[in-house]
Amino acid sequence: MTTTDWPSDGLAPAVDELGTDMAGTLAKLEEQVERAANGSTAVGKALSLLDALGSGRAAEPLSALAARTGMPKSTACRILKMMEGLGFVGRKDSLYCLGPRVRELGKQANVSSHNELRNASLGVLERLYDEVRTTVHLAVLAGSDVLYLEKITAPGGSRIPTRVGLTVPAMCTALGKAQLAFSSGPSIEAVVRGPIARLTGNSARSPQELLEKLAVVRKTGFAVDREEFRAGLSCVAAPIMVRGRVIAAISASSMNGAAYSSQRMLFVRDAARRLGAQLERAQRLSS
User: Fold this and answer.
1) Partner residues linked to 254 by β-bridges
2) First to last CA, the chain
3) Higher pLDDT residue, 4 or 160?
4) What is the predicted pLDDT for the residue at 155?
5) What is the pLDDT of residue 39?
6) 3-class secondary structure per residue, 109-165
7) Residues 6+ apart with CB under 8 A from 53
8) Does residue 233 sit in helix, strand or coil?
9) What is the pLDDT of residue 17?
10) Angle at 271 (CA atoms; ends 268, 273), nearest 5 degrees
């Protein structure tokens, strides 16, 4: 049978039905594409606003942000309000700034960059915790601050105001002083020449006092914090050395002064030495 011989009265309804189905399918596809495009546009606009807010200025008005991103003020206002509700944007009266959630993500990104060190330290930290039965920490220097990378909390240790991702002035913590003492001269000088951070009445009062404390750390091999970071909190820390270079520190902390016991000091110092030796072996094997 040739094409011209097809029964047109039976084919027409099938063609019509196929056309209707095809049209419906195309309409749904167009709707999905449009929804995806709008979503991508919204995400792009939100990221553009965050990028504009990260320009280094303390806070900016809506008009400046809209002009910099090239979007209508009404659109910018709507997206900023949404991000404010999620914590990514903060507002001071009519001025906008980056919110606490962005700062928290930044800290977590810093922590993530040290994942290899964190993973390598877990066994040592767990053993140290079993030995001292108090809260233990791992931290690295981040400029003039210490950045907490890991924490194993003892019962009652929730009173210790630390957490992974927290940064604290290095000069006010045993973790910081343990690392500063073995840092290069320029690194120590940069901290000493900066503002003296005093978190409690026991914090170092002058650059000279800080230098004297660091000299003691170099002599003994460990640092102590006698309520310099927080009233009632005591801490002892030791540096983690790899090939003669300090890369981090381990500490034991408590709210009752028990961290100062000579036995705990030895446990902390031995843990730091074990981890340093472990990391050194790993470096030799990988080189």
Assistant:
1) 234
2) 78
3) 160
4) 80
5) 45
6) HHHHCCHHHHHHHHHHHHHHHHHHCCEEEEEEEECCEEEEEEEECCCCHHHCCCCCC
7) 60, 65, 89, 96, 97, 98
8) coil
9) 52
10) 110
Residue 283's pLDDT is what?
84
The structure tokens listed for 215 are 């000299």
What interhelical angle do 262-286 and 115-132 show, nearest 10?
Answer: 150
Q: Whose structure tokens read 């003492």? A: 181
Please, what are the domains in the chain?
3-98 (1.10.10.10), 106-286 (3.30.450.40)
Please, what is the average pLDDT of the chain?
Answer: 83
Q: How many CA atoms are closer than 13 Å to the CA of 230, on its beta-carbon side? A: 14
Single out the residue of 106, 48, 56 nearest to residue 80, CA to CA.
48
> What average pLDDT does this structure show over 38-49?
76
- The DSSP letter of residue 4 is G
* SS3 assignment for 150-191: EEECCCCHHHCCCCCCCEEEHHHCHHHHHHHCCCCHHHHHHH
Q: Which helix (H) or strand (E) holds 102?
A: helix 100-112
Task: Give the sheet arrangement for strand 95-98, strand by strand.
Answer: 60-61, 95-98, 89-92
Q: Are strands 245-254 and 167-169 parallel, antiparallel or unpaired?
A: unpaired
Least confident segment among 37-41, 123-127, 234-238, 277-281: 37-41
Model pLDDT, residue 56: 73
